[in-house]
TrEMBL record:
It comes from the Bacteria. GO terms for molecular function: oxidoreductase activity. This is Rubrerythrin family protein.
Length: 277
């Protein structure tokens, strides 16, 4: 573990610098990160033949769990009505990752590693954006430390690919790589985020009057995410994804992909403007 909660300046917490629009996305992230044990079990099964990968996944899972605990602690300071473990329990009871007895849902171990790179690229850009959009000192420090971890996770999964699955990666047609990367990045049938967003809100849990609506929760969550990102965060995300498929990150391909992605992102941002306003 490269850092602990002792590295966060909790005594400097500034309630007046909490941006209320980002509190729900911090709570949502806290629940997803703290649920890492499910992914550790899933990945241990996929990589059961490689002991060194299994060990690396254990360490990775502990770091993700620490991200969840730390974000949860901050969220409870920002909103004292937030009860992290209560909400986490609710989330775990209602959401389970898809069954994994058959191995990787990505079709192969190398496909799984590519998908992991996409997730870590996404979290790297997410915490970088969050770091730059908050002035609250505790959250700023938390996001800085987590963003560094996420980038090292991205490098970890790339390194594992290169060390243990290079032949499979090299033989994989570029279109299959693109399909895997874009497929993971645009997955829309996954209700993990939507259900975590729902679970993060006490009023849903206690009133029992607001049933879970995946589409609505997803729209509400992403309307906040669209506003969080700037063009440079999309460029960072696209650069890491281009690298994942084995292409040079600083190339015209990256520029074109970033411009297109930012254009679509901006359209979605304006289309969702009425939500949360
Ligand atoms: Fe994380
Ligand atoms: Fe991570």
């Amino acid at each position: 573990m490269t850092w602990t909660q002792a590295h966060i300046p909790w005594d400097d917490f500034k309630p007046d610098q909490v941006n209320p629009t980002i509190v729900p996305i911090v709570k949502t992230a806290a629940l997803i990160e703290a649920n890492s044990a499910s992914y550790v079990a899933y990945l241990q099964n996929v990589f059961s033949a490689e002991r060194n990968i299994a060990k690396a996944i254990d360490v990775w899972g502990q770091q993700e769990y620490q991200h969840g605990l730390t974000l949860g602690r901050w969220a409870a300071l920002a909103d004292p009505s937030f009860s992290f473990f209560h909400n986490l329990d609710f989330f775990r009871k209602g959401y389970q990752i898809p069954a994994y007895e058959a191995g990787s849902t990505r079709g192969s171990p190398v496909g799984e590693l590519l998908a992991r790179c996409v997730v870590e690229a996404g979290t790297t850009s997410f915490y970088t954006a969050l770091y730059e959009q908050t002035s609250e000192p505790c959250l700023k420090q938390i996001c800085l430390l987590i963003a560094q971890d996420e980038q090292s996770h991205y490098r970890l999964f790339r390194a594992l690919t290169a060390k243990y699955y290079y032949a499979e990666y090299d033989a994989m047609p570029i279109w299959d790589k693109i399909k895997t990367v874009v497929g993971r990045a645009t997955e829309t049938d996954d209700d993990e985020i939507a259900y975590a967003y729902y679970s993060a809100h006490d009023r849903h849990l206690h009133s029992g009057e607001v049933p879970y609506d995946r589409e609505k929760c997803s729209k509400l969550y992403f309307s906040r995410i669209y506003r969080l990102y700037q063009k440079k965060h999309i460029e960072l995300l696209v650069r890491l994804m281009v690298q994942t498929i084995g292409k040079t990150p600083n190339s015209p391909v990256t520029t074109v992909c970033s411009t297109l992605t930012w254009g679509m992102w901006s359209l979605k941002k304006y289309a969702s403007w009425s939500l949360n306003h």
